[in-house]
Design brief:
The structure is a homodimer. Chain A is α+β, with helices and mostly antiparallel strands. Chains A and B meet through strand 1, strand 2, strand 3, strand 6 and strand 8 of A and strand 1, strand 2, strand 3, strand 6 and strand 8 of B.
Chain lengths: ~180, ~180
């Protein structure tokens, strides 16, 4: 399957969460370069209230320079399983614990330059707990009807990949 | 709107396509760090044949270590507009030129750590031209009925963000 041979690797950056590999690989007799973010993976949760409302978070994102509407999500800690990460992040970001957590699927947000995979869960039977944000997170909780979410989707106001994919997986039975 | 002040920036990596910024920013009186990929943006195209079939490409992705099914896409060249990038990439990867190109929307694949935005187009009225792949691309063209694409989607065999989002935008009118 793997048709490349690693010839040389440099690691120009090691951060708190990710590191960057620049690999020279031999591929069909040619030497090519691959710039690659090594990422531990993430979990994202679409939280469904008992009446069908969806909980979203409006989050200030430094990279894109604005607040965008997202489902709760977070990066896996060392050795953490996606399901446990999903439970932890849901509670931290929304203040609810999931009575039921169902895996909807996974995806690669940028397979061209990152190893990151995001596993998506549906959370139902939500139970009130306590929200506790990281000190560098700026998050506002927004509860919306499914109709409202569909309107935002149709009018291009949901622009975050994991949120769009979660909505596809959640509403997708009708496709 | 922007509630942060940049205090210090290092650029530990400048690559062919992306560069990495590590920014120390002042945010609500605290000094926080943001690791940030600076990306020129990309365009992706869902190509629809006259009979409704969809053209996909199966592409070997080094970062995730396997071949995955995607819509044609590529990175914007310097000064290139997303629409022109979409035309160019469609022709390069599939050997078809679009008679009609319609913008479906855009999204951020990883707003937590990359500036990348991907604009998605629907291509119809396809006209045969010549495929010409980059030397480091390993791509196979696959033409599929919409029914087959829906089956692959439901069974979790489409795992690429831009492809999933394009399918949501394309089929989304039924949501």
């Amino acid at each position: 399957m793997a048709t490349w041979t690693l010839k040389r690797r440099s690691t120009p950056y090691r951060g708190r969460v990710v590191r960057l590999h620049v690999d020279e690989v031999l591929y069909r007799g040619r030497r090519i370069t691959r710039e690659n973010i090594i990422h531990p993976g993430a979990a994202a949760i679409i939280p469904i209230c008992d009446n069908g409302d969806i909980l979203l978070v409006r989050q200030l994102r430094y990279a894109v320079g604005k607040r965008i509407l997202e489902i709760p999500a977070g990066t896996l800690e060392a050795g953490e399983r996606p399901r446990n990460c999903a439970k932890r992040e849901l509670e931290e970001e929304t203040g609810y614990r999931p009575g039921t957590l169902r895996r909807l699927g996974m995806f690669y947000p940028v397979p061209g330059y990152s190893t990151e995979q995001i596993t998506i869960y549906e959370a139902t039977d939500l139970r009130p707990s306590v929200q506790h944000l990281d000190h560098d997170e700026d998050i506002t909780l927004e509860r919306m009807t499914q109709k409202r979410v569909r309107t935002l989707l149709r009018t291009g106001r949901i622009v975050d990949a994991k949120t769009l994919v979660a909505l596809l997986y959640y509403f997708g039975d009708t496709l």
